[in-house]
Write a structure and sequence with these properties.
Layout (H helix, E strand, L loop, with lengths): L1 H30 L6 H28 L8 E5 L6 E5 L25 H6 L3 H7 L1 E4 L4 H8 L3 E4 L9 H13 L6 E4 L23 H6 L3 H15 L3 E2 L23 H18 L5 E4 L14 E2 L3 H17 L4 E4 L3 E2 L12 H10 L5 E4 L5 H4 L7 H8 L4 E3 L2 H14 L4 H17 L4
Parallel strand pairs: 3-4, 3-12, 4-5, 5-6, 7-9, 8-10, 9-11
Antiparallel strand pairs: 1-2
Helix pairs in contact: 4-15, 5-6, 8-9, 9-10
Length: 440
Amino acid sequence: MKEDLKLKNCKILCSLLICMMLMLSSCSVSFGMPDENSSEISSESAISKNTAINKFRNDTDEETETSGDKKAETKAETTISKNVETKEIKSETTADTTIKDDANTVPANYSGMSVSQIIDSMTINQKAAQMILARCPTNAISQMEKYQFGGYTLYGDDFKGETPDTVKKRISDIQNSAIIPAFIAVDEEGGNVVRISKYKAFTSSPFLSPQDMIKNDSLVQDTTDKCDLLLSLGINFNLAPVADITDNKSDYMYNRTFGLSAVKTGENISNLVGIMNDKGVASCLKHFPGYGSNVDTHTGIAVDTRSKSDFEGNDFIPFEYGINANCPAVLVNHNIINAYNDSLPASLAPEVHDVLRTELGFSGVIVTDDLGMDAIKLYTGSENVNVLAVLAGNDLLCVTDSVQCYNDIIDAVNKGTISEKRLDESVKRILLMKRQYGII
């Protein structure tokens, strides 16, 4: 019996030892001994974590690099010669008005966005600024950083004593300060009106007048050479050709015209616009609805007493040719056209703009003649001419006092005189034109 009891106790002890060994083995598998896949899982987790950290660091670095002390800087894609290149974006426009302008700003890379999407991302201030084609001041670079104007016009004095390299550098600096690249415009008509080619630093002789181009059968060559010069400097918008007609050699406008009939003028306008489009330089028909025999509006008010049928059967014809040739812009003169509005200059008269849109079917950018001319200064209306110009239907306002114009527009939006929808209509046409010519 004792031997049987010992044997039984021995079996029980062995069973307990086996159970303890099994429990220890189970614990080691669960807590101390990884299987062959666990190291891979751990490694992948570490890589994933590192990737996330690096991405965060990169994103943070990019945000740090693209922000200033109190101003945000971004990168935008822009071009003047239709080649996309990256450039710095300067600070958002600072308003000089009381308008609360806290909408989104134009994103860093908008090249893949539609024009409508770009407009949706713009502030009220940026929209107002796009409508200004300012006379280029000496502080254009800092001014562009602050206001982000739609463009600048260069005059003769801007080329005096300069070289192609210095002008190109100045224009490049202006564009580098622009969130949305700017129109850089000139009046390089040829003949009496030349801003660049009168200086030998740029060309050996001035470009020919429209009449001399016809006499010398050089319209194609002269226009091509002109476009090449403008593009080489970074100029993308020529405020030409003159589509006015007159057969009176003593008229103020005669030497700037082709000196031909309405149809012949139109045919040459069409050819010239086509060449400029092929070269990638934006053109502008002027001076709608037709200057006729009127006096110089640079120095006084001109009143045109012709009938609507006179304009429709004669003066409109060259403009129709240019519009059909896809000219992107039309400039409106300051003559008071009694047949359409006997109290406002054409540039401020909605009726004249309605004719251009409805009767001639023009859907591009309407530009005012310079609102600093005496014809506007001597206009005795009590209304703000900058506001009237927007309400009349102009898209680009040619001005010398650009900051005043900017503030006037925003103040009118604050008061409800000008709607944001009205700004959007013009900005859409402006941006479509800029995209068409590779400016954005």
